[in-house]
Amino acid sequence: MDCTFKYRLTFIFSLNCFLALGQISMSSLYKEGHPSQVSGYIKKITPVDQYIIPAALMTIGGVTIATKHIIDNDAIQHYRERKFPSFRTHVDDYLQFSPFFIGSLLSTIDKKSDQNLFYKRIAFNEIFISFTVPLLKSISRVRTPDSNRINAFPSGHTAQAFSSATLFADTFGQKKPWICIASYTVASAVGILRVLNNKHWMSDVIAGAGYGILSAKISERVFSTIVHPERKNHDL
Asked: Rounded to whole angstroms, how far apart are CA atoms 45 and 42?
C-alpha cells in the first residue's frame, strides 16, 4: 500500500510539472510564430490556447474539492503522515519569490530584456494575487490539513510561485529552455513543500499552480493589448 501512495504522489507532482512546462512551451510557440501540427492541419497557437492548461489545473483542483474524485487527497495525506510526520521548513516562504529576485538581477544584465515591462507585470500580478486568492479562499472555505482554518483552497504560496515562474520564463526564457525548466522546477518544489509541511491538500496545490499561471497570463494580456496596444503583435 505504501508503494501505491508513493506512486500516486510522484505521478501527481510529475503531472503538475509536465503541464506547467507544456504551458510555457505553448507560450513560446505562439510568441515565436512557429506553426503547430494538429490533426493533419497547420495552425498557430492563439492567445486563448495559453489559458487551457491553467484552466485544466484549476478544474482538477476544484472538481477534487467538490466531488472527492480525480486526486485522492486523503491517501496522499496519510502517506505524508507516515513517511514525513515531523517535516517542517520555511524554505517555501522565500522560494516562491525567487524568480522575481533573479529576474531583477538578470534584467540589469540582459540589455535585450524589457525591464520596465517586467516590473509592471510583477506589480499587476502581485496586486491581482493579493486580492483574488484570499477571496477564493473565503468562498471555497476548505479546511487546511493541519488545523481547522478554512483558507486552504487554493494554495497562495503555489499560486505565487507559478505566477513568478511564468513571468520569469516569459521574459527571459523564450530562447533558453533551461530557464523555463528551472523556473517551473522551483515552482513545483514550492508545491511539494506545501504538502510536506502539512499546510495544503494536493488539490490546493494543483489549483494554485493553475491560478498562478493564469494570473501571469492576465498581466501579459493587460500590458500587451490594453496598456501598450503597440505590443500586441509581439508580446501576447
From this structure: 10
Helices 52-67 and 2-32: angle between axes, nearest 10 degrees: 150
Residue with cell 516569459: 170
Tell me what percent of the residues of the chain surpass a pLDDT of 90: 39
Give the residue-averaged pLDDT of 12-16.
57
Q: Under a CB-based contact definition with an 8 Å cutoff, are residues 30 and 47 in contact?
A: yes
pLDDT digits (tens, 9 = 90+) for 149-174: 899 999 999 999 999 999 998 888 77
The answer to whether the CB of 30 falls within 8 A of the CB of 46 is yes
User: Rounded to an integer, what distance in angstroms lies between the CA atom of residue 40 and that of residue 216?
Assistant: 32
Amino acid at 9: L
Q: What is the amino acid identity at position 32? A: E
